[in-house]
Amino acid sequence: MEKGAQLELDNQLCFALYACAREVTKLYRPYLDELGITYTQYVTLLALWEKDGVPVKELGTRLYLDSGTLTPLLKKLEGMTLIRRERDPEDERSVIVRLTDQGRELKTKAVTIPERVFCRTNMPGEEINQLREQLRKLTAAVHEQSCGQL
C-alpha cells in the first residue's frame, strides 16, 4: 500500500464494517416495522427466543451491550409487554429477563425475516455463511484483545 493510502476511507476495515452493518440493518427495517420493533429490540428478542429467563448481565454479554444501553432497551421492551424483568429469588442482586406470552408469540411473526433478508442480499448462501463465520472470528478476536487490555 502506498504511503498515505492507509488513511483512505475505502481502505479502512472499520468503515467497511460500519457501512455494511448500516446497509444490512436497512434490509431488516421494513420487516421489523411490520412487527413494531427496532433492530436492537429484534436481536434482543432473538437471544431470548433462543434462551429465555436469563440474567441481564448474561444477556448483555451475549449481545455485546453494556448496561447503559441494555437497561433502556429492556425498559422499552417491558413497556411493550414483550418481556418482564424480575429479581432472581436466589440472588436479589440479579435481574432475570423473561419473555411474556406476547413476546413468545412475536417469534411466529418473525420467523420469515431471516429468509426474506437473505433473498434481498443477492449473494449465494455459502458466501453468506462464510462471511458470517469470518465476522464471528473477527468479533471474537477483537473482543478478546479489548478485554485483555482493560
From TrEMBL:
Keywords of this entry: Cytoplasm, DNA-binding, Transcription, Transcription regulation
Keyword Cytoplasm on entry: yes
Keyword Transmembrane: no
Location of the HTH marR-type domain: 10-140
Pfam families listed in its UniProt record: Staph_reg_Sar_Rot
Localization (cell): Cytoplasm
Protein name: MarR family transcriptional regulator
PROSITE patterns linked to this entry: HTH_MARR_2
InterPro entries associated with the record: HTH_MarR-typ, MarR/SlyA-like, Transc_reg_Sar_Rot_HTH, WH-like_DNA-bd_sf, WH_DNA-bd_sf
Record organism: Paenibacillus lignilyticus
Top-level taxon of the source organism: Bacteria
Matches recorded under SUPFAM superfamilies: Winged helix' DNA-binding domain
